[in-house]
Amino acid sequence: MTRNKEPQNLFGRRLRHVRQARGMAQDRLGVAIGLDEAVASARMSRYETGTHDPAYNTAVRIAKELGVEVAYFYTDDDDLAELIFKWQGLTPSEQQELLKIARKHGPQSSAERDVFS
């Protein structure tokens, strides 16, 4: 597990990373999630720089538009963030295979069995 050394702006750095990876401009993303065109670019810039934190429901819309799980923006574990990011690119059978490996090797308490069964 690799903890990020700069947790204060995880959301913004990860937002910028995935937005750029998708080739989407700030204004286009902002408009796509329902922001007014006049403020879309500035608002997205503020999220990326950490000047403002988006409300959770806004983060969900951003994640959906960019095709990632919202958890990607919030985990402070870089390895887990990478896994979440790459999960979307896996086929359903690859996702199931990865889950099998995790279930086989990860600890499982009775509480986990109740939650994930």
Describe it.
With 117 residues, this protein is mostly helical. The chain has one domain: Orthogonal Bundle (434 Repressor (Amino-terminal Domain)). Helix content is 64%, strand content 0%. The protein has helices at residues 10-21, 26-32, 40-49, 56-66, 71-74, 78-87, 92-105, 110-116. It is elongated, with a radius of gyration of 16 Å. The protein starts with 9 loop residues before the first helix and ends with a helix. The mean pLDDT is 89.
Short description:
By secondary structure, the chain is mainly α. It has helices spanning 10-21, 26-32, 40-49, 56-66, 71-74, 78-87, 92-105, 110-116.
Report the CATH superfamily: lambda repressor-like DNA-binding domains
**Tally of helical runs:** 8
Q: Give the CA-based shape.
A: elongated
Report the biggest beta sheet as strand number plus sense, adding barrel if it closes: none
Tags for this model:
mainly alpha; 64% helix; 117 residues; 8 helices; 434 Repressor (Amino-terminal Domain)
How are the SSEs ordered, and which strands pair?
Blueprint: H1 10-21, H2 26-32, H3 40-49, H4 56-66, H5 71-74, H6 78-87, H7 92-105, H8 110-116
Helix pairs in contact: 1-3, 2-3
